[in-house]
Write the structure tokens for this entry.
Amino acid sequence: MDSGATAWMLTSCALVLFMTPGLAFFYGGMVRSKNVLGMLMKNYVAMGIVTITWVLVGASLAFSGAVEIGGYNVIGNFDLWGLRELGMSNDHFGLPYPDNVQMMFQLMFAIITPALISGAIAERMKFTTWAVFVAIWSIIVYAPMAHWVWGGGFIADQVGAFDFAGGLVVHINAGAAALALLLVLGKRTGWRQQAIRPHSLPLTILGAGMLWFGWFGFNAGSAFNADEFAGNAFLTTQIAAAVAATVWILAEQVMHGKPTTLGFVSGAVAGLVAITPAAGFVGPLGAMAIGAASGLICFSALRLKFMFNFDDSLDVIAVHLVGGIIGALLTGLLAEELYSGGLFVAGIEQFGRQALSVVIAFAFSFGMTFILAKVLDMTMGLRVTVVEEQSGLDLSLHEEQSYVMAE
């Protein structure tokens, strides 16, 4: 084992966990002041719940054994339940650092993925139902998807798709789930009838900075070593985020006459999302292309919720689902010869593999989440009451206030 690799991966674990508080503030600034603590809580609670489910069964289902159906490796087994077979050796993963460090790194991805969903259903979902949803979803949706792509499952081995750091597993997975959940949940009271504005854009900008900072661990850490591949992923991550943010505000200037701070940080996050599946497979020019495409297309995708009349509170669909699809597809086009892929190197075949993987990921996550949401709605109920919604979730669900003015 290598001490440098171990140190880098421990650092990456901390960076990726830091992204969840960053996401909480990014989302928290965009809701109304009466709902900010409720929004923060929906993100932070994932750090508690998913750690428990991951240690007990999630990690095992994602990264142990192989349960085959029709010749396809679809899920792990329970050999690693309770992480009982993992420790200070590197016998399981064979990486240059301990197995328990790798499992901790993967845990951080498992935590932030359901937290991403919370932005779509902001200001109207029961906290208790959300907590149950996160626990079940992390086991029946996230763990299988992680297994298919990173745990020896069929998307990587038989479909042959590339996903360096989570375009399929994290962003398309969360985006498709968000769409399914918000369709069952319904719209906020007064949506499209009254202005619903962010209460604190400085909080959102702070959260975006924390996300951007943590994303270097997210992408460069996925090289699983402190080497030239990590350096390349670090570089491409910065480039894509910077280009996407710039393109987004240019699009705002052209379309609306004024660039916005919310637009800049939304563009940065869109670029970070899109480069995630490609970070280790493309070079600087490829990263620029991905950043430009995600900035422009994700900005345009903001119209989808109005075209199709669904209330995606904080634009999870436009940024994470659309951004994840852009990144996954462009990985097939722009992957360099070093990684044996890319339309301009290996022909149309890799692009087709990427497209098929997008369809599989979307269909599975959307379908499973829709069923889970329907069951929870019939049993526990998804929505708060109209009175609770109008009072704000901070007081009605948590008996707290985010801002109390001194008398």
Observations:
- The longest helix spans residues 349-379.
- The chain has one domain: 3-398.
- The radius of gyration is 20 Å.
